[in-house]
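A reminder from the course coordinator: this example appears on the midterm review sheet, so study it carefully.

Given structure:
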């Protein structure tokens, strides 16, 4: 692991002003397509009482790149592995917390409510499931946010707010994650550079949320959705991602009819979130 320290380091990363075609090709909404620095601080207890802090920092640079297994990979510093982006997925290849030369999907920001994100070997030793999804504004950038059943939170373009390697983080006996620092440089589709930096907690300007409830759920296909705002578009997809129904919410309350649809799980989506509907 990288060297430890008792205090977080202040890092200023210059924005790359020279943008190549390859750089812009990586989706900037999924992960930084210029460079990034992330650091996790741990607080560790000692048997005698009290404790100490330690931190691990990692640098990432999109260029130069290397092609392996049909993916374009960029390197973490100090030989701690490679990172590749394909669509909404972030892949990791390396031996940090994993067997040598392991390749895996570290993040998939296209997961939906009820999907498994990873097996949590750090805290709960069970599968971490997606329990809620919405959209937030992070330093002026619209990003998808996924809330997991193990208290983890993912932000599209950043990763876990508990550290980049949180999905594969093993239990560190006597130590717990207490803070996370992230700073990434990006170039958008128009070639404009921007920066997202977090100082231990992500600065998020929330969109005014729709407080929506649905009942009965499960039902025979008739659902009453309360708390809706008139004119807001929605769509309902089945478990295979096929569009079943689309419309706009009515003011205050909206009735959705799925009678005749096969029993199963359906996802009601609108601009600010997703709800699971169950037809029995």
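Designed residues:
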């Amino acid at each position: 692991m990288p060297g430890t320290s008792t205090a977080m380091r202040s890092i200023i990363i210059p924005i790359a002003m020279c943008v190549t075609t390859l750089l812009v090709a990586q989706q900037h909404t999924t992960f930084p397509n210029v460079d990034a620095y992330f650091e996790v601080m741990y607080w560790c207890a000692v048997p005698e009482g009290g404790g100490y802090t330690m931190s691990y920092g990692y640098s990432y640079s999109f260029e130069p790149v290397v092609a392996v297994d049909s993916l374009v990979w960029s390197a973490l510093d100090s030989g701690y592995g490679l990172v590749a982006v394909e669509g909404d997925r972030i892949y990791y290849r390396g031996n940090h917390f994993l067997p040598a030369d392991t390749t895996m999907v570290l993040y998939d920001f296209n997961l939906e409510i009820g999907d498994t994100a990873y097996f949590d070997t750090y805290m709960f030793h069970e599968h971490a499931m997606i329990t809620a999804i919405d959209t937030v504004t992070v330093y002026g950038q619209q990003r998808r946010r996924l809330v997991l059943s193990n208290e983890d939170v993912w932000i599209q373009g950043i990763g876990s707010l508990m550290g980049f390697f949180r999905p594969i983080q093993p239990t560190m006996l006597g130590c717990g994650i207490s803070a996370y620092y992230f700073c990434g440089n990006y170039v958008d589709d128009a070639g404009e550079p921007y920066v997202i930096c977090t100082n231990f907690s992500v600065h998020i300007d929330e969109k005014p949320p729709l407080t929506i409830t649905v009942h009965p759920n499960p039902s025979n296909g008739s659902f009453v959705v309360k708390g809706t705002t008139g004119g807001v578009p929605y769509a309902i997809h089945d478990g295979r991602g096929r569009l079943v129904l689309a419309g706009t919410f009515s003011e205050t309350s909206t009735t959705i009819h799925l009678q005749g649809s096969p029993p199963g799980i359906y996802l009601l989506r609108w601009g600010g979130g997703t709800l699971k509907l169950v037809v029995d």
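DSSP finds one helix and 21 strands in the chain. Residues 33 and 186 are 5 Å apart (CA to CA).
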